[in-house]
Design a protein that fits this description.
The protein contains four helices and two strands. By secondary structure, the protein is mainly alpha-helical. Strands 1-2 form a two-stranded antiparallel ribbon. Helix 1 packs across helix 3. The longest helix has about 30 residues. The radius of gyration is 19 Å and the shape is elongated.
Length: about 100
């Protein structure tokens, strides 16, 4: 399978932000965790911030951004609708049987 390295690394940064939503994480901590240079980590973070997938706090630390949260919420809503529809179909077929 062919992958785009920069996209893959940016996704690794997103995954590394997981679990730091309340207090955030520094570039130094992220760089160490990802085994990347701080400058490279900064570039990935800036791309994520510009697109809304990450956010920089007032203290300089980074957290997951609103865009990612909106995508997750929309996915959750869609799954809930599907589950409700499945439950409705099960109930209808149980009444018929």
């Amino acid at each position: 399978m062919s992958t785009v390295k920069s996209v893959s690394k940016a996704l690794k940064v997103l995954k590394a932000l997981r679990g730091h939503s309340l207090s955030g994480i520094t570039i130094t901590e992220l760089s160490s965790q990802l085994d990347e240079s701080p400058s490279q980590t900064y570039r990935y973070l800036q791309t994520l911030v510009d697109s809304g997938f990450a956010n920089q706090l007032d203290d300089g630390k980074y957290v997951l951004g609103l865009t990612l949260i909106q995508i997750a919420k929309a996915h959750d809503t869609e799954i809930q609708r599907a589950q409700d529809r499945i439950a409705e179909i099960i109930q209808r077929t149980s009444v018929i049987a």
